[in-house]
Amino acid sequence: MRFEEFPSAAQLTAALVELLTAEVVRKSAQPRLMMLAGGRTPLEAYAQIAARGVVGDANLYLCLSDERYVPVTAPESNAGQVAPLVRALHLPPARVLFPNTTLPLAEAVRDWGHQFAGFLQRGGQLPLGILGLGADGHTASLFSLDDVERSRGLLALPVTHPNGSQRISLGADLLAKFERLVIVTAGAEKQPMVERLRAAPLTIPAGAATARAPRVECWFAD
User: Fold this and answer.
1) Do the Cβ atoms of 82 and 68 come closer than 8 Å?
2) Cβ–Cβ under 8 Å, residues 103 and 158
3) 90, exposed or middle or buried, with CB in 10 Å at 0-12, 13-18, 19+?
4) Residue 151: which pLDDT band, with cuts at 50, 70 and 90?
5) What is the percent of the chain where pLDDT is above 70?
6) What are the pLDDT digits (tens) for 158-203?
7) Which of 29, 144, 171, 189 is most buried by a 10 A CB count?
8) Whole-number mean pLDDT of the chain?
């Protein structure tokens, strides 16, 4: 894993904007999926890209790393938070692989897994994924090492947050298919977990979940 420290959260955001914009407009002959993380750190980057008026390439698909099992209109919905970016990129629904949280939880998980299975069967590529890092060491909605192990062999799975709320997360084996994963995080409260990622990555969910991916980076700022 490669680590890159930025002097400020604003500079981290600027670098993320450039990375994502380049991927959004990159021309490709094959369908390619870009994964977005929820959470406060990347949201400013998404807003800045949306404000630029960039239109996504015809073969660009988007997905989320995870979702809260709430209506898309709920403030905590990741899909709701990234909706302005989706609209700005002019992506049709068929190229937006988000969980359908109007379905019963088990059915929503199966449906999301089928979306990814179909994409991969069509020869879809997974060049870039953005992940977050929680102060507890989680990424996506994999909150424990047990969640990571339970996700093996699954494209998507239901996860219960420690507070009892329900989530839907991508599994570690699907994360491993992304050619490049970039974990982005900011804030002094995240620094202990950045150091754990550096010194003992397999002891926290974020490290264990990304251990099999070919290229993983951690971008962080105080």
Assistant:
1) no
2) no
3) exposed
4) very high
5) 100
6) 999 999 999 999 999 999 999 999 999 999 999 999 999 999 999 9
7) 171
8) 96
- Say how far apart CA 13 and CA 197 lie, in whole Å: 21
Any idea how long the chain is?
222
Please state the domain extents for the chain.
2-221
Please state whether 39 falls in left (phi above 0), alpha (psi between -120 and 50) or beta: left
Considering the entire predicted model, what is its pTM? 0.96
For residue 149, the model assigns a pLDDT of 98
pLDDT band at 39 (very low <50, low <70, confident <90, very high): confident
- From the list 68, 64, 78, 1, the residue with the least C-alpha distance to 33 is 64
Looking at residues 143-172, what average pLDDT do you find? Answer: 97
Contact 1, 193 (CB under 8 A): no
What are the distances in angstroms from CA 29 to CA 26, 37, 149, 179?
10, 25, 35, 17
In contact, 81 and 38? CB cutoff 8 Å: yes
Q: Domain 2-221 carries which CATH code?
A: 3.40.50.1360
Contact by Cβ (8 Å): 81, 112: no
Helix (H) or strand (E) holding 10: helix 9-25
